[in-house]
Amino acid sequence: MALIQTQRGEFNIRTYGDSHLPPLILVHGWPQSSYCWHHMAPFLETYYVIAVDIRGMGDSNRAMEIELYTKDQMSEDIFAIADALGIDKFYLGGHDWGGAIVQEMALRKPKRILKLIVINMVIINNRTGQLKASEILVKQLYRSSWYQFFLSIPQFPEAMISGKEEIWVRFFSRGISNPIPEDAIQEYIRCYKIPNSLTTIANIYRTLHIDRKRWRQYEGIKLAIPTLVIHGIKDPVIIKEYIIGLEECYPNSQIVHLDGGHFIVDEQPKEVAEAITAFLS
């Protein structure tokens, strides 16, 4: 691990491989940290893997200003890290919230991204897929997304989760195709217990209404960046219908379906790495 000083604050990164190899920046989601890539990175031996702890999570800064947690602002954090490392162009991948952040990066500064990887996340400029998914999820009252509504409530999650971080993290850290490694779960719990984490992590959800308004403005934008979408097909939150219409937004895209859940990187690190390697090469 290494702390990187940037003009947007201090961020923690984990690096794997030779720094002279092509750079691949990976961005995690909730409730994880950059450690979610730890078991996958050894299979990406032909790349210099830079796994980032996003703002408010992992060992990165816990800035309390809620406006810093919109996903366009968080995308600027990742660019700042790349700048601090002296990296201009790079391969880029993200899972869950990291998947939203890397899409924001692609929309904002596409010339810096060589290829894009999105893992189990909504395609933010794909109105077609969002409508198709909504047709199904609304019939279920979005019950699989209950935690998103819960975390959006001011102050209440902090009061309920404080002192119960391990119970909270373990409730979600359950693999479907394979168990999530215990060392990864322990790392996610450790980071969730860092002071102010309950608020900074919740802020990622508390800004979602702002993100959704901005994402509507992205509708119809086509990006030529070669893009890979990896989807764990047993994910109850990011269901397969979200991917319908992908080609309307990313004409140069491909999809890999894996028989696993939302946390497919933790569940199947080798299979995810193989899909990424085949795509990047």
Biggest sheet, open or closed, and with what strands and sense?
A: 8 strands, mixed
- Strand runs, count: 8
The termini sit apart by 27 Å
Query: In total, how many domains does the architecture comprise?
Result: 1
Structural class, please? alpha/beta
Give the amount of beta strand, in percent. 15-25%
Shape, per Cα inertia axes: globular
Q: What is the CATH topology?
A: Rossmann fold
What CATH first level would be assigned?
Alpha Beta
Low-confidence stretches: none
Work out the helicity level.
25-40%
Reported CATH architecture: 3-Layer(aba) Sandwich
Q: What name goes with the CATH superfamily?
A: Alpha/Beta hydrolase fold, catalytic domain
Rg calc = 17 Å
Mean pLDDT: 97
What can you tell me about this protein's structure?
47% of the residues are buried. This protein has 281 residues and is α/β, with parallel strands linked by helices. The longest helix is centred in the N-terminal third of the chain and has 14 residues, at 71-84. The chain is 39% helix and 17% strand. It has helices at 71-84, 97-108, 127-137, 146-152, 156-161, 165-172, 182-192, 197-206, 208-218, 246-249, 264-267, 269-280, and strands at 2-6, 9-16, 23-27, 48-52, 90-95, 113-119, 227-232, 253-258. It has one domain (2-280): 3-Layer(aba) Sandwich (Rossmann fold). It has an 8-stranded mixed β-sheet with strand order 1-2-4-3-5-6-7-8, with helices on both faces. It is globular, with a radius of gyration of 17 Å. It has 12 helices and 8 strands.
